[in-house]
Amino acid sequence: MIVDCKGNLYSFGCPEYGQLGHNSDGKFIARAQRIEFDCELIPRRVAIFIEKTKDGQVLPVPNVVARDVACGANHTLVLDSQKRVFSWGFGGYGRLGHAEQKDEMVPRLVKLFDFPGRGATQIYCGYQCSFALSEMGGLFFWGVTNTSRESTMYPKAVQDLCGWKIRSLACGKSSIIVAADDSTISWGPSPTFGELGYGDNKPKSSTTAQEVKTLDGVYSEQVVMGYSHSLVIARQDTEQEKEKLKKLPEYNPRTL
Question: Which domain of life does the protein's organism represent (predicted)?
Answer without folding.
Answer: Eukaryota
